[in-house]
Design a protein that fits this description.
Distance between the termini: 24 Å
Shape: globular
Oligomer: single chain
Structural class: alpha/beta
Strand order of the largest sheet: 5-6-7-8-9-10-11-12-13-14
Number of strands: 29
Strand content: 25-35%
Length: 541
């Protein structure tokens, strides 16, 4: 479900927001949390990947940048492994700092995918770390044998997941934690050997149930004995796409009558937002765990004292107005794609293991640099003071990068996944857009039109074949590991492109990242919730 952006809305900074903001000594941006997230997300592409040529080696590879990108793009192994001489420049106070920064961006090679050297045997992934034997997973970490998932953490042999932590052998799960062999589960915790569950905890051997706690042998929320359940469940064992759709329709109807939790918040103290766990004093945060004293953030892990910060942390402390940074960083402001033990970076892009830099792009293990030029500590402080003084005069100090500094077209970025955008809006905001018509190119002779029932066919029947999405017509193929998992679970091959499946999951089961006032049906108190008006909400868990 995508959020409609209101550019005319004015922020209402809370007392907590202002207190945390004072730590960073920059002017307020004048943007709401939704407006900030809109511009941040435009600087990250997670799930759009393209075949292109490495500008260094000439090899073909999968990249988050299309072939006609204006940037130099290298395979991540090359960009991490080589010590390149990178361009630099002197600061010109007569020109906009951001224009000079963008000119530098165009000269510095970018990594084709955001992947580090902890990844094994997983060439088709993006924004991933510490994973092995995975395929088409995005914005994920510490996973093994997982496919077609986003925001997946510490999971194994799981497919078609969105926002799932510590899940094993699961299929089509959304906002789930610590589940095993759960198929078609939404907002569940510690459930196993079940299918089509919504908002269930500690349940086993359940089918098409909503809101159960520590139960087993239930179908449509009705209790059975073990023997009765095993006999009754036989009616539901053969799941083709028609039966799966029927089960989802039944689950949707049950959800309409069921009072939703106002938020999926687990073991937290004084937190607001959604999908938050094991955190304290995190306000208006989303997909956040093990964090403390953070405001207006999303997809955070092990963060502390961070404000207007989206993706990632693990850990991260004292950071402001940043996007897509993490793994041991401290005191970053207005940065993106900076990671791996960085500190005291301001207005930097893709500068791993660097410290005390301003306006730099693509540096590795450097310090006291401005626009990639090396200075002594004293010279650095003088040069930074000159730039900040000019930015204050121009009203730029504290603002995030302007749209033209984004390395991605707006419809090729995360913004396109979470917000409603069109060509007119992109042009008004000075973003670029790209033509995606070429995505449907395929060889008609390779199209597979046979059965999708994994009990009737073998992998050899679909190996090397092209399937066409029943909704969009986009071509896709079937991986051997994908076939094996679906066959073991008695599930059919997908009839839609993996992007379509992901978008359907998110549209149906992930609520917009914004809060609005609701009246709880159990306490009649006014609460802040991201649950849409069509659903009832309850305050007590």
């Amino acid at each position: 479900m995508r959020l409609q952006l209101d550019l005319n809305q004015k922020p209402n900074y809370s007392k907590d927001y202002r207190a945390l903001h004072e730590l960073f000594n920059v002017p307020l941006t004048g943007l709401t949390s939704e407006q900030t997230r809109f511009f941040h997300y435009a600087f990250r592409n997670e799930i759009n990947v393209f075949r292109r040529t490495c500008d260094y080696s000439g090899e073909k590879f999968l990249s988050q940048f299309p072939p006609d990108s204006p940037y130099k793009v290298y395979k991540h192994e090359i960009r991490w492994g080589e010590n390149f001489d990178v361009a630099s420049r002197d600061y010109d106070p007569s020109r906009s700092f951001f224009q000079q920064f963008h000119e530098l961006q165009l000269e510095i090679p970018r990594m084709g995918t955001v992947v580090d050297n902890t990844v094994e045997n997983s060439p088709y992934i993006n924004c991933v770390t510490r994973c092995r034997d995975c395929y088409m997973i995005f914005a994920s970490g510490t996973c093994e044998d997982c496919l077609y998932s986003i925001n997946l953490e510490r999971s194994k042999t799981t497919m078609e997941a969105s926002i799932a932590h510590e899940c094993t052998y699961c299929y089509y799960v959304v906002s789930c934690r610590n589940c095993y062999n759960l198929d078609f589960g939404i907002s569940c915790e510690s459930c196993a050997d079940s299918r089509f569950l919504y908002d269930c905890r500690g349940c086993k051997h359940c089918f098409l149930c909503v809101g159960l706690d520590n139960q087993e042998y239930h179908i449509l929320n009705k209790k059975y004995t073990k023997a009765e359940y095993e006999e009754e469940i036989k009616k539901y064992l053969l799941l083709d796409h028609e039966r799966i759709n029927q089960c989802f329709e039944a689950l949707k109807q049950m959800r309409l009558d069921y009072p939703h939790k106002y938020a999926n918040i687990i073991n937290c103290e004084h937190c607001t937002g959604n999908d938050i766990s094991y955190s304290q004093n995190c306000l208006e945060n989303y997909i956040t765990e093990y964090s403390q004293d953070c405001i207006d953030g999303s997809s955070l892990r092990k963060c502390k004292n961070c404000l207007d910060f989206n993706l990632r942390g693990d850990p991260w402390e004292m950071c402001y107005n940043c996007m897509s940074c993490g793994y041991g960083v401290y005191h970053l402001m207005m940065c993106f794609d900076c990671r791996n033990d960085c500190s005291y970076l301001t207005y930097c892009d893709s500068c791993p293991s660097s410290h005390h830099c301003f306006g730099c792009v693509g540096l590795k293990n450097q310090e006291y640099c401005v626009l990639n030029k090396q200075y002594s500590k004293a010279e650095y402080e003088v040069e930074v003071w000159r730039i900040i003084r000019r930015m204050k005069e121009d009203g730029e100090r504290g603002n995030f990068f302007p749209p033209y500094c984004s390395p991605h077209a707006l419809n090729n970025s995360m913004t396109n996944e979470y917000f409603q955008i069109d060509e007119k809006l992109a042009l008004e905001l000075w973003f670029t857009r790209m033509n995606k018509e070429a995505e449907n190119v395929y060889d008609p002779a390779l199209v597979y039109t046979g059965s999708l029932d994994t009990d009737e066919i073998s992998f050899d029947d679909v190996k090397g074949k092209i399937l066409l999405c029943s909704e969009t017509g986009k071509p896709y193929n079937i991986q051997k590991r994908e076939f094996e998992i679906l066959k073991n679970k008695g599930l059919p091959l997908p009839d839609k492109h993996w992007r379509t499946r992901l978008e359907e999951r998110d549209r149906e089961f992930i609520f917009p990242r914004t809060l609005h006032k609701r009246i709880a049906s159990d306490t009649w108190n006014e609460i802040m919730s991201s649950v849409p008006e069509i659903y009832k909400v309850r305050e007590r868990f």
